[in-house]
Write a structure and sequence with these properties.
6-stranded antiparallel β-sheet; globular; single chain; 21 helices; alpha+beta; 5-stranded antiparallel β-sheet
């Protein structure tokens, strides 16, 4: 939901996407006024070098509102700078080319211009320009997801800014580094750099950037679930913007606060703050802010369980979008009307020319008056016929176009009614289906081991479950055999991936859990391999009568907490053990629990754990997720290396790192399968 702006000259800021768009709009209005004076300065300037500088400044003001015109200015400025043979001036022009290409998202072209500028600045030992080019490179590399390269160039800018004693340059790079560490999931490092940036902005009394740092820090704290500091930073940023009468910034802070309340599962406060934003947005005619405030309000009502109120807000969103579409139609009609007005002016010019000819004819000599009268009559008659013809033709054209517009409007209105009806029907159907699936999720959650029961039997552990859809085909199951002869009893833990995901997968997970429980608690089967063989037979006899290959892949552990001995069976999966800083990939059987190509006895494996050993069990959803810079699978080897790198951290922190890494890798791509990882120390 959050977006950040990396600014080469002034620092950093944090807003929603829609708030950024409004910010740019209002700035463009100001820039357009300033552009006039800059363009006039360029025209009036006589000194060739100052004339190029004025043209470069005009391009810089222009590139966000009319990038094509800015490029034309740059081409002219480059030609003039080359004639002057001023390399620093040439480098400044290449920087403007880079800004334009970056604005058009042509990142390779932007980077080429930045390298050209940096080479010229370096050759002339001009550090201010070199600092600006390094910052630009860092921003372009960030846009392309190359975080390490971006960090390298922001650090280069910091080094030069220290030499130049450029505090704003140092603070800007600190802020940009903070954003990158946030995206990398290194939240503590991100906070450190925001605090460094804010300290400098406070010294420089740059209140807008102080507010931006506070907003970004509130986002970091919210991700860390430190809601006290998240709300505190958000409030400080809001008060700064309020004191400077920054209405748009105030709305962005309030919207961020609404999202924090939603993450905090506090729908009442989220509803309250969203209604305040709606009131401000209506007052300021900020309909993009109004739209996203409605989205926050809808989410808050859904969190509260008030689906009726959420549906009403959804309806308001629909009408708001319709109004935007209607404005587009009005714009097109105005364009047609302008065309007709132009035609009318053309006819008026013809009439004026005829009148002018008549007036000129009045100045003819007296002896030609008789012939003049005759010509006047002829011209008048022809003119009358000509004008009548033009007026009749124009009337027919207007009448024809009016009918076409009427027909098109009727068609548009009919299509709108059909779309609205279908939308309402689909919304109702979707709500019914979603409500049913959410109810199924509650049933599935009730059948899964309760967190208190899990922590009681396995206190030093974590469970990371992220379904692809609302319900999951991946499942975990935990049971205690209190009838065993061991002093503390035996603990059974299963981590399994049922056939399919979503609703079909959840049905399979419930069936598989029932068969596992039946094998151990009713049939008193104690050996894990025998349990899987029993469940396999039950699945085949129950749902695989026509050779359907339904079942699951998974691991079943039998843990003796007294001796730390673990017996396990693994079907198309295997546990991973981290011992003495090394990865041990344990063995398993290459066949499923259910109908498959092979139907052999499952092997029973025995494992003796030592103090400090960590055991991980996971399904294939994490390794098979597509993402990263090239949209490829995460794969098992990087997953095991990631587990090794976090194995010494507390288990709850391991879970957060695994989830953040998964989400960052996935990015905007769709999750391909259910994902389940369990880690434990015996």
């Amino acid at each position: 939901m959050y977006n950040r702006i990396k600014n080469i000259n002034t620092g950093i800021a944090a807003r929603h996407v829609f708030s950024i768009l409004l910010f740019v709009f209002f700035c463009t209005t100001t820039l357009s006024q300033n552009s006039v004076s800059l363009y006039k300065r360029y025209l009036d300037e006589k000194n060739p070098k100052k004339k190029v500088i004025a043209l470069v400044e005009y391009s810089n003001e222009l590139h966000q509102s009319n990038v094509d015109s800015a490029v034309k200015c740059n081409e002219l400025a480059l030609k003039m700078a080359r004639q002057l043979k001023d390399e620093i001036l040439i480098a400044d022009v290449y920087m403007q080319f880079a800004f334009c290409e970056e604005y058009k998202t042509n990142y390779i072209a932007s980077l080429n211009h930045l390298f050209t500028a940096a080479d010229l600045y370096s050759r002339n030992k001009y550090n201010p320009g070199l600092s600006k080019s390094y910052t630009g490179m860092g921003i372009v590399y960030w846009y392309q997801g190359l975080h390490d390269k971006a960090i390298e160039y922001f650090n280069k800018n910091i080094a030069i800014s220290f030499l130049l004693k450029d505090k704003n340059g140092i603070a800007s790079s600190y802020g940009n580094l903070a954003i990158i560490f946030d995206e990398k999931g290194e939240l503590d490092s991100s906070l450190v750099y925001y605090q460094k940036a804010m300290k400098i902005f406070e010294e420089e009394k740059n209140i807008r950037q102080i507010a931006s740092c506070l907003d970004n820090m509130s986002v970091i704290y919210a991700q860390k679930k430190d809601f006290i500091n998240a709300i505190k930073c958000n409030d400080q940023g809001f008060q700064i913007r309020k004191s400077s009468a920054d209405t748009m910034g105030m709305m962005a802070s309030m919207e961020n606060l609404g999202l924090i309340y939603i993450k905090q599962k506090n729908p009442a406060r989220a509803i309250e703050i969203s209604n305040q934003v709606i009131e401000l947005a209506i007052k300021n005619r900020a309909r993009e802010d109004l739209k996203y405030a409605y989205i926050n309000l809808k989410d808050a009502y859904e969190l509260k369980g008030d689906y009726k109120a959420a549906f009403k807000i959804q309806t308001k969103l629909m009408f708001l979008k319709d109004s935007l579409r209607n404005e587009d139609n009005i714009s097109k009609l105005a364009e047609l009307e302008a065309k007709y007005n132009n035609k009318e002016k053309e006819k008026e010019l013809i009439e004026m020319k005829l009148v002018q000819k008549l007036r000129e004819s009045e100045n003819e000599s007296a002896h030609k008056k008789k012939n003049l009268y005759i010509w006047i009559l002829i011209i008048s008659g022809v003119s009358f016929l000509f004008i009548s013809f033009l007026l009749f033709k124009r009337f027919k054209e207007k009448n024809k176009i009016a009918k076409e517009l009427e027909f098109k409007n009727e068609a548009i209105e009919a299509q709108k009614r059909i779309i609205d009806k279908a939308y309402n029907e689909l919304t109702e159907i979707n709500k019914d289906i979603t409500d049913s699936i959410k109810y199924a999720k509650r049933i599935q959650k009730a059948i899964f081991p309760h967190s208190e029961f899990f922590k009681k039997l396995l206190p030093d552990s974590f469970v990371l479950l992220k379904p692809k859809d609302i319900v999951s085909g991946d499942f975990y199951w935990l049971a205690e055999d209190s009838n065993s002869l061991e002093q503390e009893g035996l603990i059974y833990l299963a981590v399994c991936d049922s056939t399919g995901h979503g609703v079909p997968g959840s049905f399979m997970s419930l069936l598989n859990i029932g068969f596992l429980s039946e094998a151990i608690k009713e049939k008193n089967i104690s050996e894990p391999n025998k349990v899987f063989e029993y469940v396999r037979e039950r699945l085949i006899s129950t749902i695989s009568k026509e050779n359907q290959k339904d079942g699951f892949d998974g691991i079943l552990l039998c843990i003796n907490k007294a001796t730390k001995e673990i017996k396990y069976v693994a079907a198309n999966n295997s546990p991973v053990l981290i011992s003495n800083g090394s990865i041990v990939e344990l063995s398993g059987d290459r066949m499923p629990v259910g109908q498959g190509e092979r139907k052999e006895d499952f092997k029973l494996h025995t494992l003796q754990c030592k103090e400090g050993d960590v055991l991980y069990l996971y399904t294939d959803g994490y390794a098979d997720q597509f993402g990263g810079p090239k949209g490829k699978k995460f794969k098992y080897k990087p997953l095991n290396e990631l587990l090794l790198s976090v194995s010494l951290k507390p288990l709850n922190e391991q879970s957060e790192i695994l989830l953040n890494t998964f989400n960052q890798w996935k990015g905007p791509l769709e999750q391909v399968d259910d994902m389940l990882v369990i880690g434990l120390k015996v």
